[in-house]
Structure to design on (418 residues):
């Protein structure tokens, strides 16, 4: 926003409307002022010819009138720079002063000159020139009058004052509106930049969750299998080779996940039209190894879920099973997918050692790794579900396993939250 000190700065002078920066409305106003000046000039010249056709001053009057008309029309046809416009105004004013001294009936040609001066000159210079023009008009009117008439004395200054006041007011109002528009445009740009930064941050967080639930979990499993193979290489070569083959299988799946992540960030198990139930069954079969048996069960109608909801639930299952394998010491885990008319729920249950139930609003992550640098755990799962309007519930008792329940509504709320 504009600094408060800017409000103390004086507004630009009327001369800010330079000829070189004219808009269409400025050009129309200039054309109107030129036309008015030429018309008044022609009217005054006709009056002088009709009343003083035999005067010795007639050639001078006609010549000065032609010069004034040509200079004004030329200035309208070719506006030029502000300096050139100032020179033309000086020439016109000088010729007008001379012609008014010769023929007072040309005095009211000053009205267009007043507006031209206000649009072209700085405020103080314009006011000084307008005052001088109005004074000369008063003197000319007094010369034409047969006797004293208050209107001849008051009318020119009043007209000049009104023209000056209205023009200066409109100019300052336009300046204030322009400041407001500039502030709005600047604020709009700042808001757009902030939204871009927030969008970038949200995308980074989403990518970190995707990488954690796909590549990082697979690499963690490979590390555990390779360590087990290394320990059993000499004592039990068959088991060691089994661990190696399993690690190779996980590595191949991880490669597929990485390629899919680069392509469109969809889980590999959901690629090529596979539904969530099939993807969860595949996941359960793949995770059933090394003393952990994972079963899958689906309840309710076989509903085709939105891609975002299916992806979120599959990622939830992957993250939950990775934590079950690494932390719980469970022998059995179960994935249960329940599809209702307006809700889909996924339960991940295990018979491991369990843990104390987390306090509402607490920051402790019972499903996360003790090392905060290794994974996202529960916060990542909860954040993914929250984006789709879903919820996460955890039930656990030490020594009796745990049940994680992820629920997503099948309504327009499944679209990502802003």
């Amino acid at each position: 926003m504009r600094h408060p000190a800017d409000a103390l700065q004086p507004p630009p002078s009327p001369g800010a409307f330079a000829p070189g920066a004219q808009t269409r409305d400025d050009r129309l106003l200039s054309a109107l002022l030129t036309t008015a000046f030429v018309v008044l000039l022609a009217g005054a010249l006709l009056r002088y010819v009709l009343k003083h056709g035999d005067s010795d001053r007639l050639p001078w009057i006609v010549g000065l009138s032609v010069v004034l008309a040509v200079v004004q029309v030329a200035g309208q046809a070719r506006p030029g720079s502000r300096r050139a416009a100032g020179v033309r105004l000086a020439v016109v004013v000088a010729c007008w002063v001379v012609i008014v001294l010769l023929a007072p009936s040309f005095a009211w040609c000053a009205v267009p000159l007043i507006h031209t001066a206000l649009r072209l000159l700085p405020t103080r210079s314009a006011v000084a020139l307008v005052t001088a023009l109005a004074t000369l008009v008063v003197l000319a009117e007094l010369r034409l009058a047969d006797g004293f008439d208050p209107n001849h004395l008051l009318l020119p200054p009043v007209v000049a004052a009104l023209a000056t006041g209205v023009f200066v007011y409109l100019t300052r109002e336009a300046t204030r509106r322009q400041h407001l528009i500039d502030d709005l445009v600047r604020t709009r740009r700042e808001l757009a930049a902030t939204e871009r930064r927030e969008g970038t941050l949200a995308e980074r967080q989403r990518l970190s969750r995707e990488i954690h639930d796909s590549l990082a979990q697979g690499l963690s499993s490979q590390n555990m299998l390779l360590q087990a193979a290394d320990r059993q290489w000499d004592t039990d070569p068959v088991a060691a080779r089994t661990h190696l083959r399993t690690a190779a299988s996980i590595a191949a799946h991880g490669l597929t996940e990485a390629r899919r992540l680069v392509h469109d960030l969809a889980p590999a198990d959901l690629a090529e039209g596979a539904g969530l139930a099939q993807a969860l069954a595949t996941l359960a079969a793949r995770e059933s190894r090394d003393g952990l048996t994972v079963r899958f069960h689906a309840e309710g109608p076989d509903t085709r879920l939105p891609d975002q909801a299916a992806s979120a639930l599959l990622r939830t299952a992957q993250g939950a099973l990775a934590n079950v394998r690494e932390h719980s010491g469970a022998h059995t885990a179960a994935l249960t997918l329940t599809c209702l008319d307006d809700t889909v729920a996924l339960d991940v249950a295990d018979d491991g050692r369990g843990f104390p139930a987390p306090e509402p609003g607490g920051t402790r992550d019972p499903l996360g790794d003790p090392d905060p640098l290794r994974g996202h755990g529960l916060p990542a799962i909860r954040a993914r579900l929250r984006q789709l309007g879903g919820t996460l519930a955890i039930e656990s008792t030490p020594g009796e396993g745990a049940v994680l329940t992820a629920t997503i509504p099948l309504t327009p709320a499944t679209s990502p939250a802003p």
In short: The radius of gyration is 43 Å. The longest helix spans residues 150-232. The beta strands are 293-299, 332-339, 343-350, 391-396, 402-409. The longest strand covers residues 332-339.
